[in-house]
Write a structure and sequence with these properties.
There is one protein chain. This protein is mainly α and about 270 residues long. It is built from 9 helices and no strands.
Amino acid sequence: MTAAKIKPLDLTALTLLTLIRNFKHLVIAFAALELLRCLVYFFDSWLAVKYNMPMFFPWWIMRAFDLLISSAILVLMVQYLVLGRFHRLIPRALPLKPIAMVALIMVPLWLLMDTVTDLGNFLRYYDPFAWMLEGKQAERTVLLFVAYSFVLHAVLVALIYPLFGVIACTGDFKLQKHGAWLKRQFVPFFGISILLIASLETVRNFYAKFWQSAGNNYFPASSLAFDLKSEVLAQLRFVPMDFLYAAIPAAAVSLIFLQLRKSDPTL
């Protein structure tokens, strides 16, 4: 059995080409579940304003729901890209087993990651007096946090995301094979993770700056009362980045799985 040849730069470029070529079908695979996500966040905002709370549901419940939706979208996209299984706007029969298996890994791991890469938690453990830092000391602390968070995310993605492609396409963890692939391919996986995370974060920062500059044209100065138009816009503004954060990993995972299957026909 020959080892899969995975080249980070080539696979990153192919990921973007795959996204462009399959854009329409990936949007359709994404749309219904993203609409559900937006509706739940909209409902939470409405309840929060009604009861004068910053948010109605605890953050971890909303985050777990968000990750569950992300798990389902990832599986649907990977199954389309690898197996050609196309689920229209509202899937009649979701592949529940692969979704549950991916969610079983994704939900607790990313909740843990959110905790250990939270800036407030980082400052409390790194320097309890960090809130008093000024100037270059504060800049160095923030840069250290950014580097720490970036590397931690890249390592987790490299370790875990290739497994999601296997689960989505085979309905099995195949942990022994995954361990063997990591021994041979962790460095390429890590390289792909760095390139894709850096690309996504760059786009996200530009997108956030756009909304910051355009915010006064879309949202009222006060949010003391629930404003339907403003809240709809507030939810819809996340959709483009939600799509990229779903479609780009799904495309990369699909390409990795196809390379692994070339070296292991039993997949």
